[in-house]
Amino acid sequence: MIEAVIFDFGGVLTTSPFEAFARFEAERGYPVDIIRNTNAANHLDNAWAKFERAEIDIDSFDRLFAEESLALGGPAVRGREVLPLLAGDLRPDMVEALRRIGTRFKTGCITNNLPANAIGSQSGRLLYVAEVMVLFNHVIESAKIGLRKPDPRIYRMMVEALGVDPNACVYLDDLGVNLKPARDMGMTTIKVVSAPQAIAELEAATGMTLS
């Protein structure tokens, strides 16, 4: 019996930054997927992980990301150049699904995010993020608590905050590495590839009409 639905934010309620990464790499003549590969290498303790836990500042992130991409045999990709690529567009159909889910189930958001203003001044983006965040019963942001997915502790924090058993939860994320801890805890997991696919699977899991 489902009692709660927990969402990732970027790549789930917004479009994935991966397309922006690919365009950036093509424009610069960089190796395909150098940004994603740099993010994935030593993913628990690399520059990206440290920045999402607010352990380093933007200058350190800029330098360390370049060093890590260089160590993988690619060019020295500056971290500051990658940050603007993260700003995806809201998926209105996913936001509407969230609204409907909230009428029957508890809702949460676990997001690996960056320290405030890391991407720069984007007041419009901040506004729409805030408008979506108020729809959740509870939100956990990595940069505010010093933990990030896929650390199992962040999922436990969410189920404790919502007061639910993991076996009664659905969790949506666009990254398989972040789905595994949730699945290991007993959650029903949905890997988000597209909004229509995710909504269809969410309808099957909850028994609700969401589109």
Description:
The protein contains 11 helices and 5 strands; from the N terminus they run βααααααβαβααβαβα. It is an alpha/beta fold. It folds into 2 domains: 131 residues, HAD superfamily/HAD-like (Rossmann fold); 68 residues, no CATH class. Strands 3-2-1-4-5 form a 5-stranded parallel beta sheet, sandwiched between helices. The radius of gyration is 17 Å and the shape is globular. The mean pLDDT is 93.
**Cα gyration radius (Å):** 17 Å
The main sheet comes to: 5 strands, parallel
- How many domains in all? 2
**CATH top level class name of the largest domain:** Alpha Beta
Distance, first to last CA: 21 Å
Q: What is the percent of helical residues?
A: 40-55%
Query: Which band does the percent of strand residues land in?
Result: 5-15%
The CATH topology label of the largest domain is: Rossmann fold
The CATH superfamily of the largest domain is identified as: HAD superfamily/HAD-like
**Tally of strands:** 5
What sort of overall outline do the alpha carbons produce when their principal axes are compared? globular
Mean pLDDT: 93
Total count of helical runs of at least 4 residues: 11
Low-confidence stretches: none
Order of helices and strands: EHHHHHHEHEHHEHEH
Could you state the oligomeric state of the chains shown? single chain
Give the second-level CATH assignment, the architecture of the largest domain. Answer: 3-Layer(aba) Sandwich
Broad structural category: alpha/beta
| Strand order across the largest sheet | 3-2-1-4-5
